[in-house]
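Hi everyone, sorry if this is the wrong subforum. Our group has a chain we'd like a structural model of before ordering constructs, and none of us has done structure prediction before. Sequence below.
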Amino acid sequence: MKIRIAVPSKGRISGPAVNLLEKAGIGLKDNSSRKLFSDTFDPDISVMFTRASDIPEYVADGAADIGITGYDLIKEKKVDVTQLDDLNFGKTRLVVAAPENSSFKTIDDLSNVKTVATEFPNLTQDYFNNLGLNPKVLSLSGATEVAPLIGVADVISDLTSTGTTLMMNHLHEIDTILESSVVLIANNDSYHNKYDKIEEIKMGILGVLQAEGQKLIMANAHKKDLDKIIDVMPGLNGPTISEIYGKDDMVAVNSVINETQVFKTINKLRKIGAMNILVLPIERILE
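Answer:
Right subforum, don't worry. Here is the predicted structure as tokens:
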């Protein structure tokens, strides 16, 4: 049963999304040419490249079975799709911001706003309506930051991750409308009719994300030191202990730990007396 995955053709999440599919084993045959469609090394899966903002609607309409896009875009389009999982990258916030030298400093000051410029008119309108306000929402396709500077709008609502771009344009944040990250979504009918295959894809992707920042440590140790070894490398669900052929007094210990703990763990293991210590990368973790 054929599955089509919609992936952003460009932008900040395009590269990470493609790399995620590659690491999950869904290799793209036509990745270099970046055509509209690409077959994969799985004959049942194809990839469609399109604008990130169009992906929610394509998935909702069934043009694609699965999509990788921003949560902010899904909420903006107000589509009915199945959210499979939060992929926890591409984190950003949709915020209301105003010029530093303006009279708009706090949420209370927004009652005096006449016009808001944004690429997210629906989310912005809903936000102000929830405050009991109804300013004019001006929909722009880009360069939202310039709108207050040229007198087109009093304030803006725009995406920010670090706030640097806002500060560079002498804008300050007033409030956060929505927190967003990249999510994996599916067409409702496809999720029902193609459940098994979609779950395989989902688990493959999540397995890659679970493995990020994790390392496998393998070491040989004397049985008498085993309690100390376990204290040093407890792992995700405890270490795996196995016998070493021909060495009745020794065991092999394997454990998955965060890469930030590798340096300290290795040195602790050496002091305990562990030998033949190996540190290996992990491609996927399936729980």
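For your construct planning: The mean pLDDT is 91. The radius of gyration is 25 Å.
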